[in-house]
Design goal:
By secondary structure, the protein is an all-alpha fold. The protein contains twelve helices and two strands. A two-stranded antiparallel ribbon has the order 1-2. Helix 2 runs parallel beside helix 4. The longest helix has 20 residues. 33% of the residues are buried.
Length: 205
């Protein structure tokens, strides 16, 4: 989808996107989740969605997929962190979408939910990444999530961010390969400019 066409869709669904945003913010507020123990969690969600606004036209296949894509970005942590079930996510998505769109949105959120595990490696193992690679738009939203986290961690200097900065730098080559579906289907693609933005941030540190 060309950028002008994608922007036209954003304008058309402005009210629905705003409602999805407000709903996601409220959900994470309800479970008292914060970002870096400083910001409301909506701060992180907005950073992730910023990449949808900026790069979404490069992966979006049709107007039908615009709302699921925004929903997936806003709700990507809702099962993992906000105690929703897959059925909860589907039911919420139906407020703004038809059944096929709600299914796509819920599948995205489910794919982006970490597995059960005692360590970071167990929670994000090969089965987790396989699920991302096999789900439309999940690789893109995962990349948007990582770009948001890298951007924040690399610009803040407390102990937790310093630690995560090292983790992200070490993980980057494996991470990019793990979420790369190597598919001709645009819905599974990763924008080259977005990868370059991440690599540029990492090269500075």
């Amino acid at each position: 989808m060309i950028q002008k066409e994608f922007q036209h869709c954003i304008d058309r669904y402005e009210a629905e996107i705003a409602q999805i945003k407000a709903s996601a913010h409220l959900l994470h507020e309800h479970v008292n989740q914060t970002y870096d123990k400083v910001h409301p969690y909506g701060f992180h969600l907005d950073m992730v969605v910023a990449s949808v606004y900026k790069y979404g036209h490069e992966v979006c296949a049709s107007e039908q997929d615009v709302l699921p894509l925004f929903f997936g970005a806003y709700y990507h942590d809702s099962i993992e962190d906000a105690r929703l079930t897959y059925n909860d996510v589907t039911k919420i998505a139906r407020q703004w979408m038809d059944e096929a769109q709600a299914f796509m949105a819920a599948e995205m959120v489910y794919a982006l939910t970490n597995d059960k595990g005692r360590t970071r490696a167990e929670r994000a193992g090969e089965r987790y990444y396989q699920g991302i690679r096999e789900t439309p738009y999940a690789p893109f939203v995962k990349l948007a999530d990582r770009l948001a986290n890298i951007t924040y961690s690399f610009s803040h200097t407390n102990e937790a961010n310093a630690h995560m900065k090292g983790v992200y730098l070490q993980e980057l080559p494996h991470f990019l390969e793990a979420i790369s579906a190597h598919s001709d289907d645009i819905r599974y693609s990763l924008p080259k400019a977005m990868i370059a933005e991440i690599e540029g941030l990492c090269a500075l540190h």
